[in-house]
Amino acid sequence: MAIAALLLWLCTAAVGSYLLLTGIRTANDGSAAEEPAPVTAEPPTAAAVAAQPPDTAAAISAQAPVPTPAGRARDKDRFDPPSLQRAKNEPLPGLRDLAEFAHPALAVIGFAFWLCYVISRDRLFAMIGLGILLGAIVAGLSWFAANSRAARRAAAADGQAKPGAAPLAVPPRLIALHATGALLTVLFALLIAARV
Fold first, then answer.
1. Sign for the pseudo-dihedral over CA of 110, 177, 25, 91
2. How far lies 191's CA from each of 5, 71, 134, 138, in Å?
3. What whole-number distance in Å separates Cα of residue 139 and Cα of residue 135?
4. CA torsion sign, 97 to 101 to 104 to 110?
5. In the chain, which end has fewer C-beta atoms inside a 10 angstrom radius, N or C?
6. How far is Cα 185 from Cα 63, in angstroms, rounded to an integer?
7. Which region, left, alpha or beta, applies to residue 65 given φ > 0 means left and ψ of -120 to 50 means alpha?
């Protein structure tokens, strides 16, 4: 039964890895499509204005923006890449990044402890592996919730979708398969840890 839980954990990790790579590829494709070509518009220098005829110099001077303290802050954020702009607009900055790192990291660490349990049959390894598995599941659920919330916000900003509907970047059947594998792994690990 412990080996079956180990193999189930491995299959769940394989589906999760596929989801992660698909999500990264989709995010990279989306950010490349969103990024406009950078255009730098610099105000004309005093020498360039003086070289123009008097009526053109007055028109250029009238078009030059007057920097204000509030405008300087916006100018600083104007050239931020889309990923940084999204991170600045998150309610809890860094939550998605933390969960994106913690979920696979905890899953790998928990898998290592479970492998130690399978090899040594020491119950302490099973308990530690189960605890880390539960932490990985919590991190995965928070990552999924943050991504769903961000997708709903993006869909509402575009005005194309109904409220509450969020376009998923990955197929929902793969997410369901990953969640089912995680639940079965927890069930097997609980049964083994309880010595049923």
1. negative
2. 10, 61, 14, 20
3. 6
4. negative
5. C
6. 65
7. beta
- Rounded CA separation 111/13 (Å): 9
Q: Are 106 and 139 in contact (CB under 8 A)?
A: yes
Task: Report whether 154 contacts 30 (CB < 8 A).
Answer: no
Q: Which of 163, 168, 175 is nearest to 148 (CA)?
A: 168
Measure the CA–CA gap between 118 and 144, rounded to whole angstroms.
30
Question: Over its length of 196 residues, how does the chain's per-residue pLDDT go in tens digits?
Answer: 888 888 998 899 899 888 888 877 776 666 555 555 454 445 555 555 555 655 554 554 455 444 445 445 567 777 888 878 777 776 666 777 888 889 999 999 999 999 999 999 998 999 999 999 999 999 999 888 888 887 788 778 777 555 545 456 678 888 899 999 999 999 998 888 887 4
